[in-house]
Amino acid sequence: MLNILLTWILPFVFVLGAAVVLHEFGHFIVAKTLRVRVETFSVGFGPRLFGKVWGTTDYRVSLIPLGGYVKLGGDDTNAPIEGATAQNIPARERFDLRPRWQKFLVMVAGPVMNILTALAVVFLGAVLSGVPVMPTSPVVGKIEPSSASEAAGLRVGDRIVSFNGKDNPTWERVSDDMRISPDQPLAATVERNGARVQLTIKPTREIEEGDTVGVVDFFPDYGDLPLTVTEVSPGSAAAEAGLQAGDHLYEINGERMRDQQDVRIAVNRLKGQPLYITIERGGVRSVATAKPKIQPDGSALLGVRSWIEIPTQRIGVVSAVGYAVNRNVEILRLTGEAFLQIFRGQRSARASLSGPIGIARASASAAQRFGWAGIISMLGFLSLNLGVVNLLPIPVLDGGAIFLLVVEAVLGWIGVRLSMTVRERIQQVGFVVLLLLMGFVITNDLLKEASNFRHSDDKPAATQGAK
Asked: Which domain holds residue 248?
């Protein structure tokens, strides 16, 4: 129970809670600055669990932890969710009597706060820890055997000069495009022996923790970078040999290991034999001896996950701002492409959309793999998506309220005004749509978890770790 609390519940509560609180704080601080009364600042929806009334504002935590709201004095547009406004609020503090530009500032402040949070997370990471030094024009260093990229004609030593319409792509761009495009043909141009060769690579589809992704089956030449152990499966041969997360893994039986695939191949080629693993811990090299366990399918299992530790470099404040903007624009590009694939019928909505359980799983995975850095990164990612989604012109969301302000302004030019009844009906329709969407993503989460559980039951317990 304690393990579930630490690895699942706390990361989820922190990530979702912080994203929601920051969003609502954006509305709150702008409303307070404009001297609009804030009746309620709620984390969560539904009945009040606990809180404190301070001045004219009730700061509360509510029963349903799937969002939150700021209740503005004189605003009854979301009364089905937030409750009716008080009747004795002075006219100077009522939101409904404010000019449209002030209403716009209050409404847009929540999404803007989320977007600023996403930028701040990447910016601070870049300033404090540096940015990864990746190949600017990737040279292929390794290709998975019998893979889609090998079948497409990609060769070790090829320099990728164009990929999926992007000239001189970074490795992150190539990798991201492959993961977001399972079973989709991607045009690539490579430079080989001084000539340019046109290829079409179709990433293989796989299910990763319930999500459909394309397999990245080739890797750039990273040079002589260490392979870092990220996870050691309990009870595995690696654990018995004393390997720990954070170790640098250099050699197995004298053979240089450059990536996880090298480890997997070496372990299976030498199965049944003791492995002499050269590692470095705390600057000191040593040799550990392990004997991989043979699985029912005949494969050998060492029980480690590893990745290449990419070096970082320090950058200045201006460069960090540009890096933060570029990374968040890339996330939005990938998110937008995923939604377009859903509408084009290239991607299943059920396999792509996640709700609170999916967020909890992703938060737990980030926490387990990267600790606080992973949790903060997940906060930035969720905050960005929350900010952008809330700008969509859907009733109940901030974008819906902003859209209504624009409609009212246009209708005002011809002397027409939306009645409160019409506004309430629009909000009710939006509320029903939101409930249906929440029901869909929660059901989707449960189906994914059931599928993951069935697949885990189909595997022998000893195979749950990575090779």
From this structure: 227-308
Domain stop point among 273, 308, 343: 308
pTM over 0.70: yes
**Three-state secondary-structure class, residue 240:** helix
Statement to judge: residues 304 and 231 lie in one domain: yes
Question: What does the pLDDT look like over 418-433, one tens digit per residue?
Answer: 777 787 787 778 778 8
What CATH number corresponds to the domain at position 181? 2.30.42.10
Domain boundary among 185, 220, 255: 220
* Residue 425 phi, psi (nearest 5): -65, -40
Residue 329, both tokens: 């624009």
* Nearest-angstrom CA–CA distance, 207 and 391: 30
- What would the pLDDT profile of 50-91 be if each residue is shown by its tens digit? 999 998 999 999 888 777 889 998 887 766 667 777 778 899
User: Has residue 15 been placed in a domain?
Assistant: no
Residue partners of 73: CB distance under 8 A and separation at least 6: 36, 37, 38, 39, 56, 85, 86, 89, 93, 94, 95
Residue 139 is given by DSSP the state B
What beta strand segments (E) does 35-167 contain?
Answer: 38-54, 57-72, 131-132, 140-143, 159-163, 166-167
The answer to whether 248 and 181 have CB atoms below 8 angstroms apart is: no
> Vertex 42, ends 366 and 335: CA angle to 5°?
40
Asked if 118 and 323 count as a contact pair (C-beta separation under 8 A), the reply is: no
The Cα 83–Cα 81 span in angstroms is 6
Going by DSSP bridges, is the β-strand pair 140-143/312-313 parallel, antiparallel, or unpaired?
unpaired
**Residue 366 maps to a domain:** no
